[in-house]
Design brief:
The structure is a single chain. The chain is an alpha+beta fold and 236 residues long. The protein has five helices and nine strands. It has a four-stranded mixed beta sheet, with helices on one face. A three-stranded antiparallel beta sheet has the order 1-9-7. The chain is globular and about 65 Å long.
């Protein structure tokens, strides 16, 4: 797959800054995940899975008593069966309140008010599932990666998705001149992972002096969803 150079973005005149709309087709809903071809996944698995040791990167769904940005906290109800001995449970949650993948409906280019491949807010709220998470089946300041053109170029040249252990991935509040969420989600269709639990992973990497590994993640199959728990494992 031929990827344009970063300095060739945006691909189309009049499109938002750094956007890659149409690179994988104007009806595409996978974005940079198109880079994860079968050949690349097979090659990476052969290279990186050496011991079979697995580390979950998922925080508990109820890990945050006060999720950032005034979001609803996770709530669980246990429902006892009336006709037999057993239980069901009902979860009420904001998908942004624990470890999550931000889907392509989550954050638009703010000036243009458009999501990945030019999708509008109206299209999302008219009952369609366009750009839904299923396609890939706060304090006043937050730490995170630098919002800069150099950072964008590094991501463009190296990654199909990005993730971190902070609520916003990038430093927050963002710069008025460059917001990574705009470019990554709405410009490139690049999923953003947030609030991942990286402590055990970092310790294992340091202990074994090994800094690359295989990552497996499958989002919840919710048609039209905005985000999803990552269900993610790092495999060594």
């Amino acid at each position: 797959m031929s990827i344009p150079r970063f300095d060739q973005l945006p691909l189309n005149k009049g499109d938002p800054p750094y956007s890659a709309w149409g690179l994988y087709g104007m009806k595409d809903q996978l974005g940079t995940l198109n880079r994860l071809t079968d050949d690349i996944v097979l090659k990476t698995a052969k290279q990186e899975i050496q011991t079979g040791y697995r580390i979950s990167l998922n925080w508990p769904l109820d890990a945050q008593n006060k999720p950032g940005f005034n979001r609803q906290r996770f709530h669980k109800d246990i429902i006892q069966h009336t006709s037999r001995t057993g239980n069901d449970d009902v979860w009420t949650m904001n998908t942004q309140s624990s470890s999550q993948w931000d889907g392509l409906r989550h954050f638009a280019y703010q000036k243009e008010q458009k999501f990945y491949n030019g999708v509008t807010l109206g299209q999302i709220h008219d009952g369609s599932n366009v750009n839904g998470i299923h396609a890939s089946v706060v304090p006043p300041t937050l730490g995170g990666v630098e919002a800069s053109e150099d950072m964008l170029e590094w991501i463009w040249n190296n990654f199909s998705a990005v993730a971190g252990d902070q609520p916003s991935f990038e430093c927050w509040p963002p710069s008025p001149d460059l917001v990574l969420h705009e470019v990554l989600l709405s410009g490139w269709g690049c999923p953003i992972g947030e609030i991942f639990d990286l402590e055990k992973l970092a310790a294992h990497c340091k202990e074994n002096n090994r800094w690359s590994f295989f990552v497996s993640s499958e989002v919840c199959n919710v048609p039209g969803g905005v985000a999803s728990p990552p269900n993610i494992l790092a495999i060594f």
